[in-house]
Amino acid sequence: MQKMSKQGGFTLVEIAIVLVIIGLLLGGVLKGQEMIKNAEIRSVITDVKGVTTAVYAYRDRYNAIPGDDLLGVTHTGLASSNGTGDGVVGTGKGTGSTNNEDENFFAHLREVNLITGSGIVAPTHSLGGVMTAENATYNFTGNLVCMSGIDGADAIIIETKADDGDATTGTIQASAGTAAYAPGTAYKLCFEL
Known about the structure:
Layout: H1 12-62, H2 72-76, H3 101-111, E1 131-135, E2 143-151, H4 152-162, E3 172-173, E4 186-192
Antiparallel strand pairs: 1-2, 2-4, 3-4
Helix pairs in contact: 1-4
């Protein structure tokens, strides 16, 4: 008589346990990615609030707007950094300035230790874009802090958390005529100071 060999394999219970473990691992990874993205978005909002607070502190100390400060050299010690003193952070140069007011904006804040960093190089934000100081951009009439390179999906979350959810109204706006953000499209968001 010939002896039959028994073939081994996984039972349904073993397969079910492996599938449950794989599902838990995938769920944990996806949740972790979501938590990282939420932290980056919160960081962008915190960055804007930090710059806004620094601008108010500068105004309280020197009765001037950073970058536009008519006595920028005196207040910060930065050579050739005087602004025009007209209340507008513009792209023009003030008397005795070799840099534009928008370039001196962050340099003034850095030199008086209100934000970190050095020089006139524009800082970056947690989503990888650059922060800039501007005036009268989009539907705004005053001074702004803008952040470039923000994906439409992230812009929707930022608008929902910190403003009214509309790209053309409120204290956060994107380019004029952009009624809704499109995921996959990079936007420059401007925050009113």
